[in-house]
Design a protein that fits this description.
- By secondary structure, the chain is of the alpha+beta class.
- Strands 2-3-1-4 form a four-stranded antiparallel sheet.
- Helix 9 runs antiparallel to helix 10.
- The protein is elongated, with a radius of gyration of 25 Å.
- The chain starts with 18 loop residues before the first helix and ends in a 5-residue tail after the last helix.
């Protein structure tokens, strides 16, 4: 019999009543993510699970700022600039043929005030020739607003290998930590939700790459590591409370213990997620182009991580755990 001191108050929110909705939601999102990754891989212009950016492929990125008022700046589009670039001819350099600009990726930012062009690797003479011809396409340019970044193909491959290695090492370290801290079922579920959160974040960017041409860079790898750490931390908080309830509420079914534990940590989890996402929204709105997709990746990952720590990991625990004798 449970003593009055240990008798729990009725949970305000019983996650077990909504477990099938949570499983279906996560299952559909995971399937869509896998489909997006496969379609990216099969796309002839990508041929990878995610569309790699300049950091990983190498190339030249040119950012330009136009001299115009807001009304005049709004009258230009990325397809128009891409079509005009395809008609340009640049000089050959270092014995290599003249570069083909038809595959240039163009972004129009700040309501047409700024432009970002991602091109194949250009030499200094070719870059200068391109910048010199751009006023004919987009109008006057601010000479102080011209930025050129070049990453060679070898450095791009090194950055890709380093990013993949850092992800694998961080995931392996998290797996070892969880395995030593919890029993097999807890550890499996923590790693399962970690993979769930990373998969859904990558899946969102696979679809963004297919539909909007969004590329991933080294900052995306940093965001995945951060999401993995957040996912495990949030799940561990809920699991710790469940372990406490398994001691104090040992006479109740595990489903009831999970409901009490999730209800006790629900407010904390939601507040933590919201206070983490709020500054990320600030970065999305005011952080500029260089941090925009990094902040989007973190926002998606943290939202998914909060969802899985509340709706997926705890509700799967009674299914996978052996009943106590």
């Amino acid at each position: 019999m449970i003593s009055s001191a240990s008798t729990p108050s009725q949970p305000r929110f019983r996650i077990s009543r909504h477990r099938h909705t949570a499983w279906w939601g996560s299952g559909v999102a995971a399937i869509l993510s896998v489909v997006g990754l496969v379609l990216c891989w099969l796309n002839p212009s990508i041929q990878a699970p995610l569309k790699p950016g300049l950091d990983f492929t190498g190339g030249t990125q040119i950012q330009l700022e136009r001299v115009c008022d807001q009304q005049a700046c709004s009258g230009i589009s990325a397809p128009e600039i891409q079509a005009a670039l395809a008609q340009l001819s640049l000089p050959a350099q270092d014995g290599q043929p003249a570069p083909n600009l038809a595959n240039a990726v163009v972004q129009v930012l700040d309501q047409g005030h700024s432009l970002v062009m991602r091109l194949q690797d250009l030499g200094p003479i070719q870059t200068a020739a391109l910048v010199q011809q751009m006023p004919k396409i987009v109008g006057p340019l601010d000479p102080n607003g011209i930025s050129v970044d070049t990453i060679g193909p070898t450095l791009g491959q090194q950055l890709l290998q380093g990013s993949v290695l850092s992800l694998l090492v961080s995931f392996a370290a998290i797996a070892v930590y969880i395995t030593f801290r919890y029993n097999g079922v807890f550890a499996f579920l923590a790693l399962f939700t970690l993979g769930h959160d990373v998969l859904l974040t990558c899946g969102a960017f696979a679809w963004l790459g297919l539909l909007a041409g969004v590329e991933v860079d080294s900052l995306f790898a940093v965001s995945l590591i951060t999401v993995a750490g957040y996912s495990v931390t949030d799940t561990v908080v809920v699991f710790d409370r469940i372990r406490e309830q398994r001691t104090t509420l040992a006479d109740l079914p595990l489903v009831e213990q999970v409901d009490v534990a999730v209800d006790a940590t629900l407010t904390r989890s939601l507040y933590t997620s919201l206070t983490t996402i709020l500054p990320l929204l600030g970065l999305i709105l005011f952080g500029g182009a260089s941090l925009f997709w990094f902040a989007v990746a973190l926002t998606i990952g943290i939202a998914v991580g909060s969802w899985s720590s509340i709706g997926v990991a705890p509700t799967l625990l009674p299914v996978l755990s052996r009943p106590r004798n």
